[in-house]
Amino acid sequence: MTTVAASPQGLSLTPQKTSDRAKLAEVAKQFEAIFMRQMLAAARKTDFGGDDLFGGQAMETFRQMQDEHFADLTAKSGSLGLAAKIEAQLARFLPPESASGATASGKEG
C-alpha cells in the first residue's frame, strides 16, 4: 500500500511504502499521545482554591496547546513505554513480514 507522508511543513507528494508494523508503531504512538492529553486535561481540572492571576480563555488555550505538545513529545520519545506495549500486543495479529522480518522499531520480531 502506498501512503502520502505528512511533514510538519505540509504534505509530501512522494509516495512511501510502509509496512503494517511501521503503521502499527505510528498508531500506537498516536494513541499514547491521546492518552497523555487526557491525563493532563484531567490534572488541569483540579482546583486547589487559588486565585488565577493570569486566568481566562487565552491562558486556557495556551495550557491546552502546551499539554498537547508535551503529550506528543512524550509519546514520540517512548518514555512511558505505552506505545511499545500496545504495538507488541497488536503485532501478533499482523501477517508475517516478508524478507528480513525486522520490525519498525529495529527489533527482531
Structural overview:
The chain contains 3 helices and 2 strands; from the N terminus they run ββααα. 51% of the residues lie in helices and 13% in strands. By secondary structure, the chain is of the alpha+beta class. Helix 1 packs antiparallel against helix 3 (82-91). The mean pLDDT is 76. It has helices at 20-44, 57-77, 82-91; strands at residues 2-7, 10-17. 12% of the residues are buried. A two-stranded antiparallel sheet has the order 1-2. It has a domain at 19-46 and 54-91. Residues 43-89 form the Flagellar protein FlgJ N-terminal domain. It comes from Novosphingobium album.
End-to-end CA span: 21 Å
Main sheet specs: 2 strands, antiparallel
Order of helices and strands: EEHHH
Secondary structure tally, helices: 3
Q: How much is the average pLDDT? A: 76
Gyration radius, in Å? 18 Å
**Could you name the ranges where pLDDT drops below 50 across 5 or more consecutive residues?**
none
Report the helical percentage: 40-55%
Extended strand count = 2
Beta-strand residue fraction? 5-15%
Strand order of the largest sheet: 1-2
Basic shape: elongated
Structural class, judged by helices and strands? alpha+beta
